[in-house]
Amino acid sequence: MKIALVADEGSPLMHAADTEPASQETRVAALACELVKQKHDVTLFARKDAPDLPDRAELPGGVHVEFVAAGPAEGLPDEMLLPHMRTFAARLADIWRRQRPSVVHAIRWTSGLAALAGTRDQGIPVVQTFHSLRVAERRHHVSSDGSSRHAAGADSDSGATTRSRLERAIARSVDAVVATSSEEMSDLASLGVPRTAISVVPFGVDTELFTPEGPVAPRTERPRLLAVATHLERDGLETAVRALADIPDAELLIVGGPPRPELRHDKACCGLARLAAGLGVSDRLMFTGKISHGSMPALLRSADLLVDVSWYEPFGMAVLEAMACGTPVIASAIGGHRDTVVDGTTGVLVPPGQPTLLARRIRRLLASPMLLEGYGIAAADRACARYSWDRVGRETVSVYEGVQRCSIQRSAA
Cβ atoms within 10 A of the Cβ of 145, count? Predict the structure, then answer.
């Protein structure tokens, strides 16, 4: 199958292997590489967002990347990116007339606009993955830049209404939508998308990199809790720090965030450090700063428990990577966590924003090492069985094959 993946920004893909844990680019690159591994011809089309990007490149694994000039060669927020999607779409259309793909798979809503416009009158089926829907972000009080507005209450993003309307139009216009969780499937159905057009295919995890066996990062004798800073403003890290005050002797290691030299100047990190000082737990709170994706497994293996009590998490890659390493998790009962974590089997689900309850559950788990061991074994088994990239790739191809069949039937009629 000749597959065209469409991403709205190019340069992050070139550094996907070295990005922080759980980045969107890591997932897109991993999916593309898996599709190539399954003998498909994959080209990733991305907007040229840096002047030093070539016209063409190749990712490790044999994925071809074409960088398309559309607007200024710099990274742009959605509201500034949107006006350039017409140019992006026109250039994609020209490429696809000369080299017709079997299917186009758009990643994020802006790419969906370009994909629909670029395939118009060509009869090429389009599949859409949103990664995050505005309706879900508004429900969880997350602004369009990814930061949490939970404390502020109502969402006042100027572009929120436009994005919501466009996401609804895209979801109802494409041939199929790939949702990454059951919650996202429900949100899509609420937008009027037929359930028959929605397939739940989660993100995968590299089960060769993230395994229970392998190097373990150095640690102290204290019980280690580990939290991953993906979006500092909405990761629920304040809840975890407050809980630490009620978990005697345990330490909390926060992985990710800005580069280590910039930690003392980062507003969110400084706020967490001040909170820890006020609670008397500064000596038990540590920050690694930004790390590479390849450094994550050893850190995850060093932890007794991964703590992810985000206010909003569409999928939750950190949880999945911890599970693949055999590290049990305690996570907020939201979004993709409710699919990934089997409560009471691979870990524990808790309501977000409740540090007292979180501390009580963590104390109970740390006091039961055999229970933690059992959760870790079950977590690794579930990650390998359900979330391997091999399985995710096959399920994604199944969606492509379905829209291809429908396209052929429409042409024949």
Answer: 11
pLDDT greater than 50 at residue 138: yes
Q: What is the 3-state secondary structure (H, E, C) of 86-99?
A: HHHHHHHHHHHHHC
| Residue-wise pLDDT tens digits, 14-34 | 665 555 555 677 788 889 999
Query: Distance of CA 375 to CAs 306, 338, 386, Å?
Result: 12, 16, 16
> Across-strand partners of 67?
46
- Predicted confidence (pLDDT) per residue in 318-330, tens digit: 999 999 999 999 9
Phi/psi at 79 (nearest 5 deg)? -65, -25
Give the three-class secondary structure for 218.
coil
Prediction pTM value: 0.90
Burial class of residue 202 in the structure, from the number of CB atoms within 10 Å of its CB (0-12 exposed, 13-18 middle, 19+ buried): buried
Name the residue among 240, 267, 262, 242 with its Cα closest to residue 331.
240
Q: For residue 325, what pLDDT is reported?
A: 98
Provide the terminal-to-terminal Cα distance of the chain, rounded to the nearest Å. 23
Q: Region 108-125: what's the mean pLDDT?
A: 95
Q: Indicate the pairing of strand 224-229 with strand 251-256.
A: parallel
DSSP state of 53: -
In this predicted model, which residue has the larger pLDDT, 26 or 287? 287
- Residue 115 has φ and ψ, to the nearest 5°, of -65, -45
- DSSP H helices, 246-368, are 267-279, 296-301, 317-324, 337-340, 355-366
3-state secondary structure of 68: strand
Tokens of 264: 């003392």
Tell me what pLDDT residue 131 has. Answer: 87
User: Structure tokens of 191?
Assistant: 């937008």
Positions of E strands within 33-187: 41-47, 56-59, 63-68, 103-107, 126-129, 176-179
Cβ distance 124 to 408 under 8 Å? no
Q: For residues 307 and 224, what is the distance between their CA atoms, to the nearest angstrom? A: 10
